[in-house]
């Protein structure tokens, strides 16, 4: 393994612009990816990690061009495989900060299996899933997050298959950290990035992202000043889940069935109001939260659904190496001559 | 009773029984005894695809063949001189391979009417005269073992199970093997069950004594040690040898090895072996599938590790797309294909050489990948080191081809001293190489055309790479037509240029007057070599050469091919190397092809070669 | 499409033995697969479908040899791909009864993505997942359902990654039918098969299966007469979830947190006892049930977790074909000469 | 003002602008007008990989080239006679392709200092004399359009957008095109926005009148209709032609088509096209990935449907393992590879022929698959029908190769009558074919070696198939060495035997005395043909042949190759067909290879051919 010379400049001196590259950004004008890029570049200095210790790995898709625009190490790999590639990198180089950028097609269609396994494995990866509910790069086919009945080039009579709820799916796959945020809400986005970065293990961040060419306005309900407060459920750990204008709406638990749902006009002291617990060991809680919203986005929880501690794959793996080394020094000659040997003399 | 001892120069023994009879263990032990005695040897295990195929059926038979000699040998032998058949199914499954006059030691206890029928015999072969051309030694192995173990406090089942050790003891007597190592082995293996250990040792000794005292065994044999070069030896099969080669190469390169793999027969044992060696900085990652396996390995290489992935045919097919990415990224990566019978699931436990063209062409676009092949079990070690050398030096994925026969077969290996192993220079770049302190990730080395390898963590060399065509030098995305043409040709030139680093191809043409060259690759080395010896013993001249490098070919190959009137290319496929040679050198090579899931028989090859020679 | 002549023999006359083939069954003696095979063959006549309309598709693994032993149409395909192959078959031939047989490696490791997508798509497939928590055919490596720390050939120092809970995973993937049963409990197994067969859509049945060679006794806790009643939670729709000797244990809901858990010594009339509702539209309920057991099998729910109605992919697809045909007859000449044409005269 | 009308025999026009400028639409409309006028034509669109590359940059330029003539033509033309440049970047990106004397129509409104700089010009090319070798027609396209639309109640942006219609009108005047079809088209396209429709029609008319009235445009041109065979024609590009071919073949076979596909450039449009035709019993399944796409298609074939899967290079790589399964199952399956620049992600929007060897060898084991290639956009129709014929008749997966150029390029197609299309006989088996009423799924047809196709739902023919090697006739699992060898050779023989069903290879050697044969495959047909014409016009003899079948080759190919002193094989790869020919026929073919992501230029090829001819 290389032992690179550490750079002298103090890391704190980094600015957002240090993370820009000389590459012309090639998304469509108005694409939500721009906002995410700016938010991520703005957040990076806070990470407190030297640029050279950061790696962005992506698959293929509009979103997956992301690494070209980050002045860190980066790999624009192949469709769906970024979580696998990043797992190899992160588990052999636990000193790095490894980020994956992917899309709803990249992560959930062709790459679904790698994502799922990355989540259960829990290597130290931060996965940013740009969910525009469409295949952007290939010009507008429906994706595994598109709503049923979606009319696209490949589904002229409407799509037939129920979409995934990426949050539910991730929780079902034993994810230790799952969050959702929005391209246009820079502050919220950066807050979620912060939480993800602090989490040790695989963090999945679903970012609703507008594709203004092929699926424009998909998340308008959560963006439009007239509607967003009515439909966005902000999750904050330790806080009662209240929202809407004047916080009149709340997520309440039905004491009879135990299920949770949204109610309007909930009294301030209603004991049924759920207090958000992102650290709840039982994933059933976060799962229930994830079911509050359907594809119509009505009542969409935003923020960190779940963040629990679990040993990370990279750490466990490197511990085994240390343990093995502690038991005995590597001895190549001994290895080669191991087992039954015999000697032939001249 | 003083018994006669006859000298032999070589023997081929095959142990055969039910999958549950422990034939592989028996064979391994006999091999160990033989190895430590100093014979040269070669082994060939053969087992059913099922984990435990139905007992007593021909399909459930597992066998182990061992060829040992007082001189150096090249194959596990075409046909057994001695067959040990633990039950009727074992006899039936192997009978057809026996030459007239072979010795057959049968376990008569198992020849019940039911078992005989289950094996598919119409009548009891021990009684119907159908074995008359063999020397049958009828031994009630099971009952004698059980009787010998009466005093032990073990179950009847355990006692019966020890019959393989009885058989081993008997054979050890017959061939004057040393017995200590087996006794030690049994004591260690059953350390936690001392009664079982003692019983097995007793069974082993009983078998030995049975040979010594029973009249039916009148002769024992002596095969003198082979005059091998001085040194320390061990017996080794291909998969561990390959694993050691990878570890050794990583050590000699100062790199940490990362294996991303998904289990598959017959490659899984490399994963198992490497998993044991974490102290060498070896990380093994059992991935969710083959694609993740190679992806993770490539990620590790990007991080400055030595990425390796292992699989067999169907798994390699799945890796195709990612291999293309590795070609484009120009990062070191070793892809081990332990070939088996194809197409599709094919014959998972059988051997074949039919993935050569997949290795060369199995991905989209012009995506050249160097290909290296091992020729014998122990050679897997050196082939692995060579694959790593190429991968690291040229920043390229490299195919390392082995097969089911090499993976499981074994032979003595003279353990090399660590210092004698070549070192490999990863040559990480640590400083900017471009104008104004920039880093040019595709600025190439003038000699090798390799690009620099800048590892995350190195300040100032931050860069992005990907699978879209890249501009020369800068590595930025480029759709420029001329740049694409240039890059396609440059990647090809880089791989072609590896030939400059190769030694001349060795041609074994002892008389110097051969008109026929036999050219092979991979695991056919042994049978071809043995066949050439036979041909020469018959007074004919033949030249032999064997390719370690299938891509690029050694520079002198064309000239060598043209030196001979005829070139014969035996392959366990329908002529894949043959096609490449014809295309490249326009030489009308003669293919000799078998796709039977088994190694060639030397005798058969010898006849083929003779035919060609006398035809010239 | 072929229009095969229908057979004359009444289907009801079929017996278990009609589903046996002449192939020698090649599992290890004592393997749990035998019991499953017998149970399936015993169940088939009940299906009321002629043999020729039944297809078994499998991947690769010990379990995947299953089709060879069923005297129906069958395909032993390649590792992990059976759900994809079966989807093509089921959606182009909705007249067939299509069954998938797979293993924990086949379905959850290499084939995880196809499984997940089959579940959300909901074509009419019955997926039998033989879960022995090990790779049998390749001789004993750990699988995605093996417990953490498992020592196998590939993990001599113990496995590192948290396993999937296949039930949770399936529910996270929008499964419409999910159940669990046990190889050795023929009656229960057949009951679950019945429910799966009756379900229209993709049904996932996890079958705990003993691999006596590489993972012997993995499910002993649920089989041993001394322990099984203590640890098995039988799920029956509409029934309070009580179990244990004399039904003293129960699954209760904590009114405060809404979460469910097992309690011992629960009074017969305790209102906190959960009444099983397999048809609950909210998957959060079934998900919560799936979390009652960990890999140690203590308190393992067995039976149908979830069974809800949802349009099936095959039906929707064929409806679109009908709709398109109803709008206009297929006219090949018209298709070829569609768009702008012009005529050249002699 | 009476203007001069000049006759021309052919013209090449290229429309170029920003991705957002609607150049593809403009080109399509001009093509439609030209087609209905009766010229022969050929088109070549060219667009950036980005959805909307940055406006005003060279990378964001999208172009459409159209070649039309009064005689039959074969390519979209090497170099434009007329370039329409909507902005400085469009001029800069295309300037290098222009021959001296070419006409350049530039939109002067866009030549602001900023735009000129953004395009990478140091100074304004309209002013610095750098265009002196061209005939520049400076037209303020944007402002004139906006002025022409003043009275319409539309936004300024919409008015500016209509400038492409203005340009189209101008060109329509220049080349005396009919205008009705474009007016109808615009009215239909914007049916829901009548104001926009009217504005676009007005802009189109304004452009036409601009030509008619402006002094700068003194001459218009007439290109007479081409004397094409009588019949009904349409303009068609390769992807829809391929889709239609599949539908037609399915109809003529009485099979329902099932497409399992995952979107990928440049193949996605086949999925899009087939998705429209459900009434033909076409099921389209957008799978989770390429592996599921081919898997589902294979499942549908098992069910008696016509399984088809479509992709491009990287996706085909992923399908490798399943293709091997299809080889083993011997079920019909059509695998369409719309090739693009490789390796890896490569150049997704560019054309290349570099997947031939992947198609032939990209999977484990000996797994032969027939390969068929289309040679022109409309030929994709017939190539698809041929692929289906082979797949169904021989029960085998078949590769159908097209490429990015064929996919997007277009040409007039004489619409065939349905009755003239061949029928295909699926020949499902409905009765037992073995002893005692058993079904033998691997009992073969004596002539084709195809196995029977028994579909679920057929009573009495229940059977199991799989990827493990199967016993001859019964299809039961078999590990028998001789059976394996036999089955491997039989599968090969089945594919080889397809050659018997092929017509003799057509060789175009008009003078009959050519010494040089040019042999091609795939989309190079047009440029090679055009080049051969040039060579012949120059008084030299050359023979041309083009392969539809790449595996197996036609039986007479070897004999044909040997008839010529030299064989030239131009390919958009590093010599893949060349390798196959050399290997099979030991003929020293001369490769002419370019890997530039673009079709060959006829003029360049002609020089190469002349060089070889004069060298003989
Ligand atoms: C193996 C392979 N299959 C298909 C493609 C084509 N492809 C590229 S991106 C993409 C989907 C993009 O959708 P998404 O992941 O949602 O990203 P977006 O463009 O919407 O950001 C597809 C199908 C490919 N590049 N490689
Ligand atoms: C592409 C591919 N990769 C790997 C294998 C090897 N392989 C066969 S079965 C199997 C796993 C079997 O485990 P599981 O699915 O749990 O089935 P079981 O044998 O336990 O019933 C593996 C890894 C293969 N046949 N094909
Ligand atoms: S196609 Fe959509 S996702 Fe892609 S760059 Fe354009 S706006 Fe963004
Ligand atoms: S290895 Fe295990 S799962 Fe496979 S057949 Fe044997 S007992 Fe059954
Ligand atoms: Mg998307
Ligand atoms: Mg298993």
From TrEMBL, chains A, C:
Its EC number is 1.2.7.-. GO terms for molecular function: magnesium ion binding; oxidoreductase activity, acting on the aldehyde or oxo group of donors, iron-sulfur protein as acceptor; thiamine pyrophosphate binding. GO terms for biological process: cellular respiration. It is an enzyme of class 1 (oxidoreductase). InterPro entries: 2-oxoacid:Fd_oxidoreductase, THDP-binding, TPP_enzyme_TPP-bd. Residues 60-207 form the Thiamine pyrophosphate enzyme TPP-binding domain. It holds the Pfam family TPP_enzyme_C. Keywords: Oxidoreductase. It comes from the Bacteria. This is 2-oxoglutarate/2-oxoacid ferredoxin oxidoreductase, beta subunit. The keyword Oxidoreductase applies. The keyword GTP-binding does not apply.
């Amino acid at each position: 393994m290389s032992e690179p010379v550490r750079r002298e400049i103090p890391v704190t001196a980094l600015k957002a612009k240090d993370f820009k590259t000389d590459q012309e950004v090639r998304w469509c004008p108005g694409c939500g990816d721009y906002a995410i890029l700016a938010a991520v570049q703005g957040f990076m200095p806070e990470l407190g990690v030297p640029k050279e210790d950061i790696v962005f790995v992506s698959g293929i898709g509009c979103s997956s061009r992301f690494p070209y625009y980050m002045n860190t190490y980066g790999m624009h790999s192949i469709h769906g495989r970024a979580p696998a590639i990043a797992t190899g990198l992160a588990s052999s180089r636990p000193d790095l900060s490894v980020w994956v950028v992917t899309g709803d097609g990249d992560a959930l269609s062709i790459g679904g299996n790698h994502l799922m396994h990355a989540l259960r494995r829990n290597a130290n990866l931060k996965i940013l899933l740009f969910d525009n509910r469409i295949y952007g790069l290939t010009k507008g086919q429906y994706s595994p997050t598109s709503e049923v009945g979606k009319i696209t080039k490949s589904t002229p009579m409407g799509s037939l298959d129920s979409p995934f709820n990426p949050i539910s799916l991730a929780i079902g796959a034993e994810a230790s950290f799952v969050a959702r945020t929005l391209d246009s809400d820079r502050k919220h986005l950066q807050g979620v990035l912060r939480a993800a970065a602090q989490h040790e293990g695989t963090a999945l961040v679903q970012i609703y992202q507008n594709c203004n060419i092929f699926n424009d306005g998909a998340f308008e309900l959560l963006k439009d000043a007239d509607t967003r407060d009515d439909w966005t459920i902000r999750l904050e750990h330790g806080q009662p889940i209240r929202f809407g204008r004047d916080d009149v709406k709340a997520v309440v638990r039905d004491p009879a069935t135990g299920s949770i749902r949204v109610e309007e006009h909930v009294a301030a002291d209603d004991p049924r109001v759920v207090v958000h617990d992102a650290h709840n060991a039982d994933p059933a809680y976060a799962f229930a939260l994830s079911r509050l919203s359907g594809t119509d986005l009505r009542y969409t929880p935003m923020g960190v659904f779940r963040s629990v501690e679990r040993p990370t794959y990279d750490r466990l793996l490197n511990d085994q190496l240390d343990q093995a080394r502690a038991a005995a020094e590597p001895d190549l000659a001994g290895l080669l001559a191991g087992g039954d040997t015999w000697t032939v003399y001249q | 009773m003083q018994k006669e001892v006859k000298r032999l120069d070589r023997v081929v023994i095959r142990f055969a029984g039910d999958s549950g009879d422990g034939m592989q263990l028996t064979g391994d032990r006999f091999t160990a005894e033989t190895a430590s005695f100093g014979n040269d040897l070669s082994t060939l295990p053969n087992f059913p695809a099922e984990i435990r195929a139905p007992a007593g059926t021909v399909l459930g038979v597992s066998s182990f063949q061992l060829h040992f000699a007082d001189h150096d040998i090249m194959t596990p032998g075409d046909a057994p001189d001695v067959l040990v058949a633990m039950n009727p199914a074992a006899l039936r499954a192997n009978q057809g391979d026996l030459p007239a006059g072979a010795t057959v030691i049968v376990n008569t206890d198992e020849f019940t009417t039911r078992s005989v029928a289950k094996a598919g015999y119409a009548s009891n072969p021990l009684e119907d005269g159908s074995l008359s051309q063999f020397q049958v030694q009828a031994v009630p192995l099971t009952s004698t073992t059980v009787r010998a173990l009466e005093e032990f406090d073990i179950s009847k089942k355990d006692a019966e199970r020890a019959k393989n050790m009885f058989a081993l003891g008997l054979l050890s007597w017959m061939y004057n093997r040393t017995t200590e190592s087996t006794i030690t082995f049994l004591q260690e293996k059953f350390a936690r069950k001392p009664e079982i250990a003692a019983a097995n040792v007793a069974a082993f000794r009983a078998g030995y004594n049975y040979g010594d005292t029973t009249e039916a065994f009148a002769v024992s044999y002596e095969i003198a040690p082979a005059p091998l070069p001085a040194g320390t030896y061990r017996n080794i099969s291909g998969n561990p040898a390959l694993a050691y080669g990878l570890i050794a190469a990583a050590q000699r390169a100062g790199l940490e090895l990362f294996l991303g793999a998904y289990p598959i027969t017959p490659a899984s044992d490399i994963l198992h072996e490497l998993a044991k060696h974490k102290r060498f900085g070896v990380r093994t990652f059992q991935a969710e599938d083959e694609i993740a396996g190679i992806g993770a390995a490539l990620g590790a290489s990007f991080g400055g590790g030595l990425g390796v992935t292992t699989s067999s045919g169907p798994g390699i097919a799945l890796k195709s797309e990612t291999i293309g990415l590795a070609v484009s990224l120009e990062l070191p990566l070793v892809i081990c294909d332990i070939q088996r019978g194809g197409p599709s699931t094919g014959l998972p436990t059988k051997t074949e050489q039919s993935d050569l063209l997949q290795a060369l062409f199995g991905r989209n676009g012009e995506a050249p990948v160097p290909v290296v092949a091992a020729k014998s079990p122990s050679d897997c070690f050196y082939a692995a080191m060579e694959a790593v050398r190429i991968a690291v030096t040229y920043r390229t994925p490299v195919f390392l081809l082995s097969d089911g026969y090499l993976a499981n077969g074994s032979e003595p290996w003279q353990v090399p001293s660590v210092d004698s192993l070549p070192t490999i220079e990863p040559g990480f770049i640590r400083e900017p190489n471009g104008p104004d302190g920039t880093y040019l990730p595709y600025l190439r080395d003038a000699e090798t055309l390799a690009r620099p390898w800048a590892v995350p963590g190195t300040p100032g060399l931050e860069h992005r790479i990907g699978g879209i065509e890249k501009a020369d030098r800068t590595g930025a995305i480029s759709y420029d037509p001329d740049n694409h043409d240039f890059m396609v040709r440059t990647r090809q030139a880089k791989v072609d240029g590896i030939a400059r680093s190769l030694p001349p191809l060795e041609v074994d043409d002892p008389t110097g007057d051969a008109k026929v060259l036999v050219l092979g690759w991979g695991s056919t080395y042994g049978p071809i070599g043995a066949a050439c010896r036979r041909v020469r013993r018959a007074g004919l001249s033949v030249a032999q050469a064997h390719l370690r490098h299938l891509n690029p070919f050694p520079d002198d190959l064309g000239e060598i091919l043209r030196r001979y009137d005829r070139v014969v290319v035996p392959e366990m496929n329908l002529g894949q190397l043959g096609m490449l040679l014809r295309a490249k050198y326009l030489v009308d090579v003669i293919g000799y092809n078998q796709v039977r899931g088994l190694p060639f028989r030397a005798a058969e090859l010898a006849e083929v070669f003779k035919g060609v020679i006398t035809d010239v």
